[in-house]
Amino acid sequence: MHQQLQWIVTIMGSLAVTVLSVRALSMWIKQEYAAAATTLVAAAVITAGVFFPGFVTSLAEEALAAFTGAGVEEPEDKPSPGPTAEPSGPDVPWTPLLAGLGGIIALALLAGIAAGLRARHRRRMLERQRRAELEARHDRVRDAYAAFTTDILAVLDRPALNDVGTPETERLILALDAARDARTAPNTTDYAARVIALEIAWKAADQHARKAGINYLAPAERRAVQQARHLLTTALDDAGNTHERHAAYLKAINLIGTIITVPHEAVAAVEAATRRALPKK
Q1: What are phi and psi of 231, to 5 degrees?
Q2: pLDDT digits (tens, 9 = 90+) for 217-246
Q3: Across 52-56, 67-71, 104-108, 254-258, which has the greatest mean pLDDT?
Q4: Element (H, E) at 238
Q5: Dihedral sign of CA atoms 43, 49, 51, 56 in order
Q6: What are phi and psi of 159, to 5 degrees?
Q7: How far, in Å, CA of 273 to CA of 152, rounded?
Q8: What are phi and psi of 82, to 5 degrees?
Q9: CATH architecture of the domain formed by 2-64+99-126
């Protein structure tokens, strides 16, 4: 009966220690260190009380004796009526000891799992942060190029940036496509390489287009671009005459189309800006 009761207490204690350990692990992952430490102390107390009751009892008796000043009375020796049996050695409580050792190993394993989960969580947070930074850098280049393609005056000032026959611009377009495809892929390392290549390509293409300006065009084309730019300035002037703005817009669009390819986004932006100058049908 005593052995059965001991097994029940051991099993219940083991379950309590396991539940507290798992709860402490959850708190540790959430970085609730104070609560996790308190829970682990509670688990340690239960472990000591269940698996080492003799040690706890002796500590309690010593504490009580020190507090009350009373000692523990030694029982009087009584003569044994029969022959004295030979001592068989100390009775070692192997079951509680093994259970306690198992509890300690379980706590160590849980601590290792907690450390691994925290490191994994930290790596995921750093990965998300790195991904967000890469996407922001990608967006800056993409937005800068989109702003160029919707500004017809910028296209006239830097036509090489819209000319895929220019090697720098061709590399920029290819880098834009590659970065766009890599953005949807889970490989952050490849995406980072594509974003870096895009930034380099954008800087090279933009600098080349600014440096070249319209000087790489033929003399007649340069004059036509300059004339078209003047006409567009008139068309985009809200203070101008309605009929003059409309005429300048039509003439500029026809003139530009014979020289360079203008992005449809830029044409749409000009049409939207000058819509009020167009005669109502």
Answers
A1: -65, -40
A2: 888 888 888 888 888 888 877 776 777 777
A3: 254-258
A4: none
A5: positive
A6: -60, -25
A7: 11
A8: -115, -175
A9: Up-down Bundle (1.20)
